[in-house]
């Protein structure tokens, strides 16, 4: 059997066994998109994870020169994997290794299966904000499973069904996997009407986008928490109510106070759901009714968490670096790949009370990337903690930039948008008190640069919460 034939055989197997739902759209009375898989018994799910981990590791060893060479150099061989818990034996792959390979073997490096490289259907790319972009090639199988994973939460949690109008205000350009593939396929599976708005054009076509929201009476809006807030503030200022019933929060963890503000500026919204994901196709989605608990589709991937200094598994309850393995990406496998996010090593597998979903959940939100951590007076902070505090300051838009000027800082320097024409010493002092109290500093440890609305730094449709001014 050729590599292509085996790839197509596995794809058909996944569809036949129901891991990829092929009967769509469902009857709108159905609550779960794929009940069989989403409520699978834990023991069966554990067997699936073990089988798929062994399969993808053997596949990579047999068909991907990059992995065979990389693993041999680290003393690892596939027969060391007996079940999914042995995943910690696999060497960690970080982005700098991919960049070296990509530079030596453009455009994808030697990590892509040669026989499948000519049959990719979509190319995604990271932003390249920390260096050379890395590319991900998606074949028919990978796209099919990714669309299935999207449909599970869109249908089940967000109520995206026939007659629903969904607007995608994520990135529609730049090789972004959560853009067109979601709008053009996962939406159609759900039977919904999809509007591919594109958050990166909102600032230049604001009046046009606001008109679309009103005319089409959009039910579900997907974009970053900050653009959600901005759109709601624009609506209030222009004297109309946003029609959105469900807010899907992408691109960064939403602080508790951010959600409260979103409901204030979007009076018709009944639900706000945090959706974490990467361009590569990883995802975890907040379960309605379980604030901050993000479910992982365990038939799709395995997460583990390590101490970034030692690469050893983090202790239960400790925070560390998030490592992920996609179990069904055969065209370009990503096995034990560092995502760079900073999370708590604690999961729960109790079925959630609303849907009975048995897949594991993070016990708290994913607060940000490892490189986003910073210290003020020796205290470790992340932008999400600052965001929660900024939203408590009166007369702000919630937009801010944390200014990082050193590895060990003696002050929190932050740019904050205020609606006040004049900022007096009393207002500034109270704002510094609120920030200091919320994040465990003294008022004199906080320095605020006040700017008018619209003057904070953004990158496309994302607020640039972290401005790094350190010398590289």
TrEMBL record:
Keywords, comma-separated and alphabetical: Ligase
The EC number(s) this enzyme carries: 6.2.1.-
SUPFAM superfamilies linked: Acetyl-CoA synthetase-like
AMP-dependent ligase C-terminal domain residues: 378-470
Keyword Ligase part of the UniProt annotation: yes
Organism listed in the record: Metallosphaera sedula (strain ATCC 51363 / DSM 5348 / JCM 9185 / NBRC 15509 / TH2)
Keyword Protein biosynthesis on entry: no
Domain of life per record: Archaea
Molecular function as annotated in GO: ligase activity
Designated name of the protein: 4-hydroxybutyryl-CoA synthetase
Pfam families documented for this protein: AMP-binding_C_2 (PF14535)
């Amino acid at each position: 059997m050729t590599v292509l034939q085996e790839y197509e055989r596995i794809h058909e197997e996944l569809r036949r066994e129901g891991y990829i739902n092929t009967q769509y759209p469902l009857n709108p009375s159905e609550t779960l998109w794929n009940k069989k898989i989403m409520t699978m018994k834990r023991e069966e799910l554990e067997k699936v994870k073990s089988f798929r981990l062994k399969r993808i590791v053997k596949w990579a060893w047999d068909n991907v020169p990059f992995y065979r060479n990389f693993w041999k150099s680290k003393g690892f061989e596939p027969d060391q994997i007996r079940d999914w818990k042995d995943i910690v034996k696999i060497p960690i792959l970080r982005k700098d290794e991919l960049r070296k390979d990509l530079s030596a073997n453009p455009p994808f490096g030697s990590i892509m299966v040669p026989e499948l490289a000519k049959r990719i259907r979509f190319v995604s790319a990271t932003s390249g904000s920390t260096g050379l972009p890395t590319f991900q090639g998606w074949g028919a199988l990978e796209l099919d499973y990714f669309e299935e994973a999207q449909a599970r939460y869109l249908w089940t949690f967000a109520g995206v069904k026939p007659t629903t109008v969904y607007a995608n205000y994520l990135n529609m350009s730049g090789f972004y996997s959560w853009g067109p593939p979601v709008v053009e396929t996962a939406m159609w599976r759900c039977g919904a009407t999809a509007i591919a708005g594109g958050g990166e054009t909102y600032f230049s076509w604001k009046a046009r986008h606001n008109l679309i929201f009103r005319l089409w009476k959009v039910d579900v809006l997907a974009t970053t928490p900050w653009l959600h807030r901005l759109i709601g503030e624009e609506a209030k200022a222009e004297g109309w109510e946003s029609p959105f019933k469900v807010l899907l929060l992408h691109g960064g963890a939403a602080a508790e106070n951010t959600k409260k503000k979103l409901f204030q500026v979007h009076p018709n919204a009944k639900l706000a759901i945090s959706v974490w994901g990467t361009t590569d196709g990883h995802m975890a989605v907040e379960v309605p009714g379980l604030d901050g608990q993000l479910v992982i589709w365990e038939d799709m991937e395995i997460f583990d968490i390590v101490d970034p200094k030692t690469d050893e598994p983090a202790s239960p309850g400790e925070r560390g670096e998030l490592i992920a393995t996609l179990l069904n990406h055969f065209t370009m496998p990503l096995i034990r790949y560092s995502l760079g996010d900073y999370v708590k090593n604690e999961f729960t597998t109790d079925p959630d009370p609303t849907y009975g979903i048995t897949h594991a959940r993070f016990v708290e939100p994913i607060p940000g990337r490892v490189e986003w951590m910073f210290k003020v007076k020796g205290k470790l902070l992340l932008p999400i903690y600052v965001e929660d505090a900024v939203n408590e300051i009166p007369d702000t838009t919630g937009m801010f930039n944390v200014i990082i000027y050193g590895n060990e800082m003696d002050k929190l320097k932050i740019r904050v948008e205020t609606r006040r024409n004049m900022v007096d010493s009393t207002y500034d002092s109270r704002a510094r008190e609120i920030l200091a109290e919320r994040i465990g500093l003294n008022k004199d440890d906080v320095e605020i640069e006040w700017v008018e609305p619209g003057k904070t730094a953004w990158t496309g449709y994302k607020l640039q919460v972290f401005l790094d001014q350190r010398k590289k």
